[in-house]
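Hey,

Quick one before I head out. I ran the complex with adenosine-5'-triphosphate overnight. Inputs first:
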Amino acid sequence: MAEQALEQYASPMLSIQGLNAWYGESHVLHGIDFDVPEGQVVTLLGRNGAGKSTTLKSIMGIVPRRQGSITVQGVETITQRPFQIARQGVAFCPEDRGIYATLDVRENIELPRRINSNGLTTDQILELFPNLRERLHSPGSKLSGGEQQMLAIGRILRTGARLLLLDEPTEGLAPAIVEQIGDTILHLKAQGYTILLVEQNLRFAMSVADHHYLVDHGQVVDRYDRESIEQNADALLARLGV
Ligand SMILES: Nc1ncnc2c1ncn2[C@@H]1O[C@H](COP(=O)(O)OP(=O)(O)OP(=O)(O)O)[C@@H](O)[C@H]1O
């Protein structure tokens, strides 16, 4: 455990305390606690079913029932509806990417509502992902997995959100595309975005993130900074079952 680096941030972009969540009768988060400092990249690691996606969905307000505290820039959001949370500057990129199959690239980009004037324009998004410019008039269903992922990330930048929740952005993608997604994440960090990432790919997580939290059975059971994750990588790979 290396916690010392985490203590120094006075005002985190996101702070979660005692988060519980349920799907019907099924109680899946059991008191999640962690902070995400502004301008940093943080990952949630853990085995399948540990509760990582549910944590992201809870932050976005899209699980049926949650309790505890989730503050975004000091504002409590636990009782807010998803559209109110979005207005606090939070955007979620789901694991299935949520691309509309019958809409083309431009239509997919232009669908989300802007929440403020910080949102990127379509041109700025296409500058960030030049491959998408070549595919501008292709329907979502004809895009490769990598193109869909880039579109899914690009699209949420249009909203003006500054806290980006990305659920397994590298899943099923070829190494060259994973590298491109990593470059994009680092570019966004350099632009001041705060990013919370769910990842199964430990090496990828290590290449982009400042801090990591290990989730198990709906709780945060360990935390690592850049140095301590290097030291614990082998043990963690065994623990993650990958
Ligand atoms: N819509 C749902 N309805 C009921 N149970 C769910 C639902 N979504 C997830 N669960 C359950 O909640 C638990 C946590 O799932 P979650 O998707 O958050 O895990 P995860 O760590 O993101 O893993 P994965 O990578 O498999 O998605 C699991 O037991 C899962 O089966």
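The two ends are 21 Å apart (CA to CA).

Talk tomorrow,
K.
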